[in-house]
Design a protein that fits this description.
Blueprint: H1 4-31, H2 38-60, H3 66-80, H4 83-95, H5 99-127
Helix pairs in contact: 1-2, 1-3, 2-3, 2-5, 4-5
Length: 129
């Protein structure tokens, strides 16, 4: 059973992550008008970089409580990143016949987020040496 402390950690982190998602997505889409949903891509890139950094930090600092980790990863990053939004935006691009944009969006989100998660992880490990 999930504890009340875990639920509070996820809920409070989720409020922060969702607010950050709204602000980042809005700022990117306002300043970078493009056929691709760049706001979604930006939050997915940022979230992927940060999750890589956090997992490296967790690897190096085992004293953090599970509640802190849950607050940061499941709460903040879970609400910040937008994989379900990415999925529906890609579907809408395909449905509209914008195949090149749809596949570019899918490839950038898939490979870009994996690359940035790895960069974040390795960056923190390298800095900690």
């Amino acid at each position: 059973m999930t504890s009340l402390a875990t639920i509070i950690a996820v809920a409070s982190g989720g409020a922060i992550g969702a607010t950050l998602r709204l602000l980042i997505n809005g700022a990117v889409n306002k300043h970078f008008v493009h056929a691709l949903p760049l706001g979604t891509l930006a939050v997915n890139f940022i979230g992927s970089l940060i999750i890589g950094m956090l997992f490296a930090y967790f690897h190096l600092n085992t004293s953090l409580t599970p509640h802190v980790k849950t607050f940061l990863v499941t709460g903040i990053l879970g609400a910040l990143t937008t994989y379900s939004t990415f999925a529906i935006e890609s579907f809408f691009l395909l449905e509209a016949g914008h195949y090149l944009h749809a596949f570019a969006n899918m490839a950038l989100n898939l490979f870009g987020t994996i690359l940035l998660a790895g960069i974040g992880y390795l960056l923190i490990l390298q800095i900690s040496k």
